[in-house]
Amino acid sequence: MSLYDRVRDLPLAIDGSRLERLELAVSPEFTRVTTVVNLDGGGHSGIGEDVTYEADEATAFQQAGLPDLSGEWTIDSLSRALGDMDLFPVAPAWAPSRAYRRWAVESAALDLALRQAGEPLWRVLGIDPQPVDFVISTGLGDPPDAARVLDWVAAAPGIGFKVDATPSWDRDLARVLAGNSSIEVVDLKGHYAGTIVDSGADPALYAMIAEEFPDAWLEDPRVDPRTQIALAGAEDRITWDAPIHEAADIDAMPIHPRTVNVKPSRSGSIADLMGIYDRIREEGLGAYGGGQYELGPGRGQIQYLASLFHPDAPNDASPVEYHQPPREGMPTSPIAPTPSATGFRWGEPG
Hints:
Number of helices: 12
Largest sheet: 5 strands, parallel
Shape: globular
Structural class: alpha/beta
Helix content: 25-40%
Number of strands: 12
Distance between the termini: 29 Å
CATH superfamily of the largest domain: Enolase-like C-terminal domain
Order of helices and strands: EEEEHEHHHEHEHEHEHEHEHHEH
């Protein structure tokens, strides 16, 4: 039985919906805004989190609300209906945002259906939750500053990192990081276009990263004849993130991976997410979880999924306390399993 078959027919009664705004001032230039989606029905509420990055799009969504979803559904019938709906009052600036918002609604629906059934996700899937290893994900700024990592090393000794490499990195910086911290994943960000994190495809950078971080996963290189030469010998450490939305995308990669970064919000639908997990299981691939700077329940939900499918991995799923500057007393890895008694919730009672 596929993983999706275990949840697709869960009955779901929706009476209405509510949206809540979450904000965090990350810097003077950037305030992170997300939206908590609440689906109400039968005396229960299901929650999910829309991680769309454009604050004005989040505001428009919060003002307009969801389409009327009231009625009797199953997880699968609601998902198919959502596939035909436009959840954006104004077209998003970035196409992947459509999947992010759909995931917020589908994860809320899964939470509500499970709570109405009186079951937790782990029991319905037949997988026991495990302690979750996590890493801190960070860029180093421009110009890059190793202190962004070293300050965390001082505050949370032993923590691992997922770092975003940029063309402004040099070998001296890489050696400081490699010698003073545990870099588990280096994100080359070769599959973004039209965003502030575009990094292009620099063969010299790729070759230097592969050499200076010989044990790290190399995420999302842009593969062309020049970068293939630069990455020669490191092919088994290449992993994919941004291009992975469904199981078929794994086969479409120019270098078949040994492991992949699974971001539920990239899939959009529960069916596509579970299809990725099925493919990983069938092929014996590794996986780790990815975060999208969630501020609320979405963070707990990616920790929940990591606890079921890839607990012993460099999961970009650190507790939300890590959105704040380094300080003593931060939660340490691994995270103890804290699934709620019912639903798709983590770290809260009920």
